[in-house]
Known about the structure:
- By secondary structure, this protein is of the alpha/beta class.
- The protein has a single domain, classed as Rossmann fold, CATH 3.40.50.2020.
- It is about 25% helix and about 35% strand.
- It contains 4 helices and 8 strands.
- The strands form 2 sheets. Strands 4-3-2-5-6-7 form a 6-stranded mixed β-sheet. It has a two-stranded parallel sheet with strand order 1-8.
- The protein starts with a strand and ends in a 19-residue tail after the last strand.
Amino acid sequence: MSDAREVLSWERFGTASRELAEMVAADGYEPDIILSIARGGLFVAGALGYALDVKNLHLANVEFYTGVNERLPVPILLPPVPNVVDLSGSNVLVADDVADTGATLKLVRDFCAGHVADVRCAVVYEKPQSTVSCEYVWKRTERWINFPWSTQPPVVRRAAGAVGQ
């Protein structure tokens, strides 16, 4: 992996999220629900929710990345798992910050399959190796991305094994 980084500032995130919402709107897609993939997707989902006037936001907690280019063998859906009854028959827009391998998005998209009317994905960044081709992508890159919400270390470090607490 190269040391070159894609750097997203808060200001550029504002532009990116607005342009992402404009792509969804221009496509004529009208989501009933925005399903955020935590944690990075929370910011994207909130911004899309405001821009697309969607108040029904849901959350999927997924653990996959453990560090820079370090992952678990497979992504894991953590509790509380969204209730498929709440999603049933809806147009769902899955929001995340990046489609890197695509494994997290695939997990969430497959979770929705068979329960929703339509499911589409919106991400700020998509990498060429992603196994999921997102319908809405602000920018494509091969670089590691420094997001404004995850560049600095945590203020408090939680004990190892905090996954799923």
